[in-house]
Amino acid sequence: LWDGVPLAPPDSIFKLTASYKADTNEKKVNLGVGAYRDDNNRPWVLPVVKKATKILLNDENLDHEYLPITGLPEFTAGAAKLILGPNSRGITEGRAVSVQTISGTGANHLGALFLSRFYGWNGAPKVYLSNPTWANHHAIFKNVGIEPVDYPYYDPKTIGLDFNGFIGALQAATPRSVFLLHACAHNPTGVDPTEEQWKTIASVMLEKGHYAFFDCAYQGFASGDLDRDAWAVRYFVEQGVALLVCQSFAKNAGLYGERVGALHVVAPTKEAADRVRSQLSVLQRSEISNPPSHGARLIALILNNGELFEAWKADVRTMAGRIIEMRKELRRLLTDELHTPGNWNHIVEQIGMFSFTGLNAAQSKTMVEKAHIYMTGNGRISMAGLNRQNVGYVAASLDAVVRG
Ligand code: LMR
């Protein structure tokens, strides 16, 4: 039995966390997984989450009953307002369907599964993914029989957006194609379209009747402002682009292990929304039955209480602010102190949790094997792993690897 089961490679991101933990070198740095750390390299439990947890612990009426199949209503309603905007026509017209999911990955899966069953495919199901994208996107779509194909996104020559290539792909694709878009803080490149570029993307998508599959895992991390980071999604809804949004609270609330997320499908009519909701419920029931309650209760408290909501916004600014400081410091060290060959302005121009350094696979491997600095093979570093104690060592190691 099982002779035919081939050995799979370990996950490209989580294997770095395991290797980092096993490494006994005192200089080791983990720039692999996109998880926030404070300036002392410790996971950060947001102060607002501590407050909300206390409130939950003191609530004598809480029990461990099942949540509804589509999740905690106070959570899904608050989450929809957060991403779509409180006055979104999708919400006021009853066209938004929101389902609680197992964080962003679960939202991507449920969205992909739903499309695989019900999207009116023009030929074999396929999804256009930015080149590059979060590695898991490929696996998630393949799992439900949707073939991933690349669209141009990152231009290594400019270390920026290949806007013309992107638009060209939208124009060349068969009408009604599905395009996965990172709502903000693109993973892994940290390169986002400008508002003007988003407007052009939306208008081509409308013209061609394409479907926007938004993944929003970093709301708040791009600009430090939750509303500003939702701009593209809200604009697309206003323009009437057909879309869904996958939402995660792992990063912006530091609830990685609690798996809190949501899938929002904005349908053309309320009647269509009711049918979509019914089918999402059927799919969810056979997969996870009912979503977990703890994280959703925490987020529901934060989203629906003015004081806690303001406190959360301040916590998000703290995280985004520290990352921006680290970007500035890394660029300063490379450019002004070490005079490292090349231009390092992209470190401060890129946004969100990650920076795409421009290091190739061999250089990234050297960083891991020689310097004990754990980063993915595509040259991505998680800026959140940098702090005032290790940024000097990371800059010196980058300098050494670039000089060969
Ligand atoms: C990452 O890209 O590092 C994070 O999104 C964590 C993950 O699930 O891969």
Automatic annotation (TrEMBL):
Keywords: Aminotransferase, Transferase
Highest taxon of source: Eukaryota
Name listed for the protein in its UniProt record: Aspartate aminotransferase
Organism: Pluteus cervinus
